[in-house]
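Most newcomers find our protein records easier to grasp once they have seen one. To make this concrete, we reproduce a full record directly below:

===
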Amino acid sequence: MIELRVGDSRAFFEAPFHAYRPGDGYVSPLRGDILRMLDAKANPLWLSGNPFRFWTAHRQGRPVGRIIAHVHGQSNTRHGTNRAQFGFFDCADDAEAAAALLDAAASFARQSGKTELVGNFNLTAMQQAGVVTDGFSARAYTDMVVNPPHIPALLAANGFEPFFPMTTFELDIRAVAPQTRALDPSAGFSFAPIERRSFPERMEQARLVLNGGFDKNPMFVPLTPDEFRFQAGEMMSILDPRLSSVLLKNGRPVGTIVCIPDLNGLLAATRSRIGLLTPFHYLRYRLRRRRAVIIFYSVIPDLHGQGVMGAMLARTVTALKDAGYESLGVTWISDVNAASLRQMERLGARPLQRLHLFRKGLS
């Protein structure tokens, strides 16, 4: 028999460790980051008036599944939708547990007056998004969703249909030919690294470029300074300043790439908890890091189609190679984003995972 609990944040963090097998490849965000996301007094998404609720499903006292549901009012207003969103749907291959969780999320959506339930969003379109539908055996990178094949099957069994296809990518840095594309300094272009001493200024510039470059993207909602700082979390402590930068033109921020070392090896070794052995694991990770991941990249609209993004990616790939990195992950790109897909093809990146959002109409 399934017991459904509301608001148990400890069980919410622990559920995937009981639901999934080690071979499924799931790697959790840090426990502290999960708890911050769920904190109604800390997360700007909740502080801006968006209702939410989260549940865990327990069998014989153990959490075997979880889900969160919320209404992103700013997204509905911007895109003319009337939906609630679900996220962090992680569940054992347990039909009863899955039905209880999804029914709870659907009831929340109906009570909120919404006509559609859509996910995964962990928690918005600018964070982890999607459900893996192919490429289950791939070794994912930080900020990529991981789930076994039974998750999309459970969603389908409960009346959800896939839409909005996406792909993540991986690039073998060792096999990349020397990059020759560059931006001419005489045209006013210069790169400013994102490093500790300039971190707040550079991240605010990155936010402005992100909001400008993504303005026309489906489901995008401009990030406020508070939201951006919250999502960046403790990024400063793990940044490699050789990899992330803001592109300036005559002093004006016009492009950005935020690329960080992949943390999944460290998180898996520590089970995403900070404990006595964490400093040892962190030191070993720093000495052995060979994988990196691009969290996002963006160019302001008036420079689209002028080769700026290609030159920025080429510079980052060269920096990765010079720093001894061997592989690069790129978080999800939707099928409708033809320009970014062409960039991946030019780089020689290969598809890693296939993902979809899932939706269900509510009567």
Summary: The chain has two domains: 2-169, 174-352. The chain has a mean pLDDT of 94. The first strand starts at residue 2 and ends at 6.
